């Protein structure tokens, strides 16, 4: 895959000037065997101090403390990255740990336990009934089942842009049979946890190379699942993708609330407020040829 440039800009506008508490920015990926950051820049307004760290999940976090009062705040990130995706290889069926029901080693399970325990409730067993209808039969390869449920959500649920804050509960998404990428990802995460899988809520960007990809033009969300032998794998139920080179991971967390790209407090009465977010992901050669 070629080199990508990512422009991600978030603007807040307020009717009246306010002061700002510390802002938590989750907008920079970590370098790895699958992704290398070539260039990175961050433009912030109002000006202020920044401090970088890693959160409990190992995600790269910037703490931004704007100074003074303002009726606007701007966070603009520009990244140039190289991706080195690995193809999704067939799983070794002879390994009994890779068959349904999923089995983790004692060492792995100790680490993975927080990502196996469900977060949401299902008081009327709506999610449970759905899971019983899609659950794998005994000895179905775990990878085959994950690919099947990923495609099932993609084909049977309607994707829609939602501008409301927050994420639907899995029960809400099941009842509506529709949701934004974050809703479909969270349904898959929480459903798999109830079947004993370790799953994470992943956020980042998606490259849309010449085809209409759902979720392009904004931050994107998908599901990561841990399998014996294969480790953490990416599944995007919004687009029916698995381990796709077009997914650019910024963060993975236990809950969607931990994955907000920009979060923090304002001090004072802002009056009416407005938010604008734009994301542009392009191949660098496409940008050069258009210049």
What fraction, in percent, of the residue positions are helical? 10-25%
Query: Count of DSSP helices?
Result: 6
Structural class, by secondary structure, is alpha+beta
In the CATH hierarchy, what is the class of the largest domain?
Alpha Beta
Report the CATH architecture of the largest domain.
Roll
Number of strands: 14
Describe this structure in words.
The chain is α+β, with helices and mostly antiparallel strands and 291 residues long. The chain has two domains: 4-84 and 260-290, Immunoglobulin-like (Sandwich), CATH 2.60.40; 96-244, C8orf32 fold, CATH 3.10.620.30. Helix content is 22%, strand content 39%. The protein has six helices and 14 strands. It has helices at 106-116, 126-134, 142-156, 170-176, 181-194, 284-290, and strands at residues 4-25, 35-45, 48-54, 60-66, 70-83, 158-159, 178-179, 199-206, 220-227, 231-236, 241-242, 247-253, 262-267, 273-283. The strands form three sheets. Strands 1, 2, 3, 4, 5, 13 and 14 form a seven-stranded antiparallel β-sheet that branches. Strand 9 and strand 10 form a beta hairpin. Helix 4 crosses helix 5 (181-194). The longest helix has 15 residues, at 142-156. The protein is globular. It starts with a strand and ends with a helix.
């Amino acid at each position: 895959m070629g080199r990508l440039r990512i422009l991600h800009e978030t603007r807040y506008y307020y009717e009246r000037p306010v002061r700002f508490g510390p802002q938590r920015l989750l907008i920079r990926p970590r370098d790895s065997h699958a992704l290398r950051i070539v260039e990175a820049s961050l433009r912030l307004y109002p000006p202020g101090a920044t401090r970088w760290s890693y959160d409990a999940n190992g995600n790269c976090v910037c703490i931004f403390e704007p100074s003074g009062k303002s009726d606007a705040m701007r966070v603009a990130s520009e990244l140039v990255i190289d991706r080195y995706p690995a193809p999704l290889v067939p799983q070794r069926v002879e390994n009994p740990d890779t068959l349904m029901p999923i089995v983790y080693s004692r060492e792995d399970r100790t680490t993975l336990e927080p990502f196996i325990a469900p977060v949401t409730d299902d008081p009327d067993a709506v999610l449970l009934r759905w899971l019983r209808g899609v659950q794998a039969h005994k000895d179905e390869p775990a990878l085959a089942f994950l690919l099947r449920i990923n495609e099932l959500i993609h084909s049977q649920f309607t994707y829609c842009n939602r501008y409301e804050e927050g994420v639907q509960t899995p029960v809400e998404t099941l009842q509506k049979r529709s949701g934004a990428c974050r809703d479909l990802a969270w349904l898959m995460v929480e459903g798999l946890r109830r079947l004993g899988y370790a799953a994470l809520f992943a956020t980042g960007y998606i490259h849309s190379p010449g085809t209409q990809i759902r979720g392009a033009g904004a931050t994107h969300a998908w599901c990561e699942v841990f399998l014996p032998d294969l480790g953490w794998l990416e599944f995007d139920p919004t687009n029916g993708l698995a381990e796709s080179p077009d997914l650019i991971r910024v963060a993975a967390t236990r809950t969607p609330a931990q994955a907000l790209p920009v979060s923090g407090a304002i001090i004072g009465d802002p009056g009416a407020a407005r938010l604008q977010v734009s994301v542009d992901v392009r191949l660098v050669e496409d940008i050069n040829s258009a210049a």
